[in-house]
């Protein structure tokens, strides 16, 4: 069995507020009934005892039931619904005069509004239903000549009830304002983080786009260079093949020369072919260097044109 302290810790604001209103209301009705019975010298019966017991135990039973259902709003509404019926029965049972009856109804309605708002206001109709339920078992006689102290007792109860209502409503409004401030602050932080993430994401998208452009441009350059290298390899191979073949042939002839004069003549031709090969190699190297220089000059020219266009657009903007 759980202790009252452990149950109290599990109850939320609405449950505690409803408990205080319910406990105060039932205690008042019990005291009022006791004073009423004593004033008119009505003998106590089992009905009086049951009403006293209900008034004492039902707030605690509701408190336990509300905690057992984990602060369920549906459970709270059921409890308040039963309250309307029982309080209507109390009003009928003790034969209140017109003014105190209205005050009790107003106080209970304000308790309900303080806990749940105006939604479900149709439950107010349970007041007259509880009153009519009393008339089924008891005769109805409206008392208009209640003693003054009973009227004053009712007025004091209303004053205490409304002050407690105002205090709890103030505490609730203050807590609600604090919670709202915290939620708004967290919302602003989330929005700021969202803006930062969006800016970072836009930057990443832009960087990715630029990277794709750079990769595409480099890929095209590499493909162009690869094609040019293939072309150079074909041309240069063709240009080098003839001198090399001639040199190999001349070297082969030297081994079969019949005299010194023929060997000398072949050597002269071999020297000529070597010089021709050297010129061919220099020509190839010069063309490669020229193409590279032209490529660098073209890149520098494109960069200059790009800066010029940016400056031109900036001047147009100003």
TrEMBL record:
InterPro entries: HisK_dim/P_sf, MASE2
SUPFAM superfamilies found in the cross-reference section: Homodimeric domain of signal transducing histidine kinase
Stored Pfam families: MASE2
A GO MF term: phosphorelay sensor kinase activity
TM spans (from-to): 19-37, 44-64, 84-109, 121-140, 152-170
Domain of life from the UniProt record: Bacteria
Ranges of residues in domain MASE2: 20-105
Record keywords: Membrane, Transmembrane, Transmembrane helix
The protein, known as: MASE2 domain-containing protein
Organism encoding this protein: Marivirga atlantica
């Amino acid at each position: 069995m759980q202790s009252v302290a452990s149950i109290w810790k599990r109850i939320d604001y609405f449950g505690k507020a409803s408990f205080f209103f319910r406990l105060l209301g039932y205690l008042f009705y019990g005291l009022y009934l006791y004073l009423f019975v004593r004033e008119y010298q009505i003998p106590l019966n089992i009905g009086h005892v049951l009403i006293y017991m209900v008034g004492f135990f039902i707030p605690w039973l509701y408190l336990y039931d509300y905690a057992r259902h984990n602060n369920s709003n549906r459970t709270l509404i059921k409890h308040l619904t039963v309250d309307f019926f029982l309080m209507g029965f109390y009003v009928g049972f003790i034969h209140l005069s017109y003014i105190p009856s209205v005050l009790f109804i107003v106080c209970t309605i304000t308790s309900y509004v303080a806990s749940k708002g105006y939604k479900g206001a149709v439950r107010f109709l349970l007041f007259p239903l509880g009153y009519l339920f009393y008339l089924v078992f008891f005769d109805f006689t409206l008392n208009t000549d209640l003693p003054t102290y009973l009227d004053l007792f009712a007025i004091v109860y209303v004053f205490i009830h409304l002050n407690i209502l105002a205090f709890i409503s103030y505490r609730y409004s203050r807590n609600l304002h604090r919670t709202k401030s915290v939620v708004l602050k967290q919302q602003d932080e989330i929005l700021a983080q969202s803006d930062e993430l969006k800016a970072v994401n836009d930057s990443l998208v832009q960087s990715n786009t630029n990277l794709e452009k750079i990769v595409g441009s480099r890929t095209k350059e590499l493909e162009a260079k690869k094609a040019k290298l293939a072309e150079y390899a074909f041309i240069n191979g063709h240009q080098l093949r003839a001198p090399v073949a001639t040199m190999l042939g001349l070297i082969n002839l030297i081994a079969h020369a019949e005299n010194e004069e023929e060997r000398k003549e072949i050597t002269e031709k071999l020297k000529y072919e070597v010089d021709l090969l050297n010129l061919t190699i220099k020509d190839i190297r010069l063309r490669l260097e020229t193409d590279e220089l032209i490529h660098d000059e073209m890149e520098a020219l494109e960069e200059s044109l790009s800066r010029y266009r940016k400056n031109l657009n900036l001047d147009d903007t100003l």
